[in-house]
Amino acid sequence: MTGDRLLCALLSTFLVTACAAFATRWLGAWTRRAILAIHLVGSTLALLLALCVVGWVLRGQSVFALGNWLFVDALGAIFVGLVALVGFLTGAYSIGYLRNDLARGDITVKSLSTYYGFFHLFLLTMTLAVTSNNLVMMWVGIEATTLSSVFLVGFYGRKTSLEAAWKYVVICTVGVAFGLYGTVLVFSNANAVLANAQTAMLWTEVVQHSMALDPATISIAFVFVLIGFGTKAGLFPMHAWLPDAHSEAPSPVSALLSGVLTNCALLVIIRYAVIASKAVGPHFPQTLFLVIGTLSIGVAALFIIVQRDVKRLLAYSSVENMGLIVLGLGLGGPLGVGAALLHTINHALAKTLMFCGSGDITMKYNTRDLGLVKGMLRVAPVSGFILIVGALALGGMPPLNVFISEFLTITAGVKAGYGWLMAICTLFLTIVLGAFVRMIGGSLLGPAPEGMPKGDVGVLTLTPLCLTLALMLLMGVHVPTPVARLIAEASETILGIPAPPPVMDAQAHARVTKGAPACVPDRLKETTCPKST
Amino acid sequence: MNGANIVNSLAALLIVTSVLVIDAKRPSRAALLYGLQSLVLVSVFAALAFFTGASQLYLWALTAFATKVILVPAILYRTLRKFDQAPPLPSPMRPAASIGLAALALIVSAVVVLQIELPGAAAFKPALMVSLAHFFLGLACIITQRNILKQIFGYCLMENGSHLTLALLAYQAPELVEIGVATDAIFAVIVMAVIATRIQKTVHSLDSHDLMTLKG
Fold first, then answer.
1. CB A350 within 8 A of CB A472
2. Which band of pLDDT confidence, cut at 50, 70 and 90, is reported for residue A524?
3. Cα(B8)–Cα(A529) distance, rounded to whole angstroms?
4. Nearest-CA distance from B190 to chain A in Å?
5. Which residue among A159, A169, A243 places its CB closest to the CB of B195?
6. Among candidates A144, A165, A181 on the partner chain, residue whose Cβ is nearest the Cβ of B184
7. Spatial contact of B26 and B35, defined as CB atoms under 8 Å apart
8. Contact A162 B195 (CB under 8 A)
9. Which of B170, B177, B203 lies at the smallest CB-CB distance from A137?
10. What is the ipTM of this complex?
């Protein structure tokens, strides 16, 4: 099967699974079995198809589909892979998690149809957003992610869930509306340059002619884009919806929101940053990235340290990590950009582990209050161990994956001459580490509460967690070659110069970056759209 | 009066209808006034199509008429009229303040638009200012209004503003793009109306001040 067909099959799989999941609510006694079968088949098939699309890109060819409206290059492939992988892991975790909710009477069997229907619709919209080559459809995809996930945020129908859902839909739709202005401004300017509305709509074409765009218009457009899609990415000061939505959603959905959705919005920002770098010069987007990234890390660190709710703590950690990614992009250069892309993967895995792990906490203790959660390691040893490792990872401890990308980001900063800024960021990261150490000491270690039944929550929920942990360890010890290659190629797309894999040894790094040509390399030229037939 | 003046004047009428929507006391009346405003938007599209010869804008006008003059106001009217009897919440803005806010939005928009080069749309810069001002006015409505139903209308105003920008700057875009944007907007309004109804059922209030449990 060719790359374009694989991509269409991937999107169709999500759509068909979502529709089938919604339809199971009319199957009566068969609903529960049918929905599980559909969900498992759909998630697995989607993961396999996504891996095939990534494999196709790894062979050195970008994938174009539907008249070039859909497009996957190395940069997009990272995010396509993340959506499907985290979707699969959280989907697998959802089975055990919702079974527990059902047993407690928090939800009904019909709610399962709603949950899995919107779950796959959410995955569809995220995949659409990261594979769109059409600038307006990119916006439509991001807006659609809000609409498909808002009912998941308000899934439990409690006052707090509905409050979170309301804030989420209002803040994100308003924020993303700013993104539409940026999109329209870029299209309008590109249309004047290209004199062809069909091609002026395509990112791959606009980026080729970015040098001819009007710098003032593109500067204003990029500010709109940063505000708009930055709201969805959870960047300070547009992050207000994030702690509420992440904490009130079911835990697997929180993992998706934190690990993938924020990254999808970030990809759109990166796509526009590439255009802005060429039209205005790299200094403009990089300065904005540095300011917003540093502020996001700093403000989030100060909020993390005072949190008592485990999911709000993790939510602010998302703001901090998105700030780190943006900081890496702001530092620029192959090392900074490579570190940022590596961190998107590492953060997605770590947040999948921790948000799903927080689901284990609520299943055992029936609360998210860290003041009431004690001795998790004794109560549920496997979950407790996984949570300890996950907390250390998010705190930036070696040899776990998050440490690698954080270390590379700081190194890139020092190398770029931002030593003082890196010192401040390191201080904020130390505060974050302190918050996670306090969580480990106060809630995961220590004696178990009296009368608390001991035993882990079940194989169904532990298996996806163990799998995620294994992936995190792998990424920490040795970044797999295909992933490193994707990151290197994606860095080339962003920078327009050859970039080595971010975890390559220093000598090789110097060899590749030395004398890098300013022109677009051959591999980048391959991303030019094929002619539509 | 030439074509550009007619388009710009019709666009200015959007601001007037915005103030009417913001100041409407009952949700059902606000829904009807929103429909009226959308009719003005449709006439702007038709005028643009007539004076610029951009025939695709007739299709935009037709789509906007079906969705924004009929469908969305009907959905909002049916969903929200049951809240007409709800006790009114104190409005932070008097009508005079709404007008002042509209003027401020226009000034900010003028500052932004004057910096942008707009080949092919230079004659419609006032309309573009109005569209951006309309967007900011909707945003101000969302931020300042305590009633969550008014926040939905604030979003509708923002959306009409961005739709006009799209028509002024991107009318050459493929029709499917306009359909995608319009569909998103319709679903956004439906989703907001459904959640607002669920909030009223669960919290027994439409006051955004009662949705302040989650903090920190």
1. yes
2. very low
3. 38
4. 10
5. A169
6. A144
7. no
8. yes
9. B177
10. 0.90
Domain that holds residue B57: 3-84+98-210
Write down the pTM of the prediction: 0.92
Which has more confidence, A532 or A426? A426
Put simply, the answer to whether B214 touches A143 (Cβ < 8 Å) is no
Contacts of A438 (CB under 8 A, 6+ apart): none
- Rounded to 5°, angle at Cα B188 from A203 and B68: 95
Residue B26: inside a domain, yes or no? yes
Integer Cα distance of A130 and A108 in angstroms = 33
Give which of A459, A263, A441, A248 is closest to A358, Cα–Cα: A248
Residue of B nearest to A155 (CA): B195
User: Using a CB-CB distance cutoff of 8 angstroms, which residues of chain B are in contact with residue A217?
Assistant: 116-117
Q: Do A136 and B180 touch (CB under 8 A)?
A: yes
Across the A:B interface, residue pairs with CB atoms under 8 Å apart total: 129
Cβ distance of B162 and A163 shorter than 8 Å:
no
Give the Cα separation of A480 and A84 in Å (integer). Answer: 18
Q: Tell me, yes or no, whether B19 lies in a domain.
A: yes
Q: Which residues are paired to A28 by β-bridges?
A: none
Q: Which of B155, B191, B203 sits opposite A159 (nearest CB)?
A: B203
Give the confidence band of A519 by pLDDT, cuts at 50, 70, 90: very low
State the amino acid at position A368 in one-letter form.
R
Q: Is residue B90 part of a domain?
A: no
Q: Is A530 left (phi over 0), alpha (psi -120 to 50) or beta?
A: beta
A191/B139 touch (CB, cutoff 8 Å), yes or no = no
d(CA A65, CA A63): 7
A177, A189, A217 member nearest B158 (Cβ): A177
Cβ neighbours of B115 in A, within 8 Å: 216, 220
Instruction: Compute the distance between CA of residue A364 and CA of residue A377 in angstroms, rounded to an integer.
Output: 12
With respect to residue B29, please indicate whether it lies within any of the assigned structural domains. Answer: yes
**What count of residues does chain B have?**
216
Partners of A319 on chain B (C-beta within 8 Å) are none
Q: How far is CA A28 from the centre of its chain?
A: 36
Query: Is the preceding peptide bond at A398 cis, omega within 30 degrees of 0?
Result: no
A114: closest CA of chain B, how far (Å): 15
What pLDDT does A132 receive? 96
Strand ranges for A69-178 from DSSP E: 70-72
CA distance B195 to A298: 34
3-state SS class at A483: helix
Nearest CA of chain B to the CA of A304: how many Å? Answer: 10
How many structural domains does chain B have? 1
Tens-digit pLDDT profile for residues A428-467: 999 999 999 999 999 999 898 888 888 898 899 999 999 9
Helices within A332-458 (DSSP H only): 333-365, 376-379, 381-394, 401-415, 419-439
Distance from CA of B85 to the nearest CA of A (A): 22
Q: Is the peptide bond before A453 cis (omega within 30 degrees of 0)?
A: no
Radius of gyration of chain B (CA): 17
DSSP state letter for A443: I
Distance from CA of A180 to the nearest CA of B (A): 7
**What's the CA gap between B212 and B207, in Å, rounded?**
10
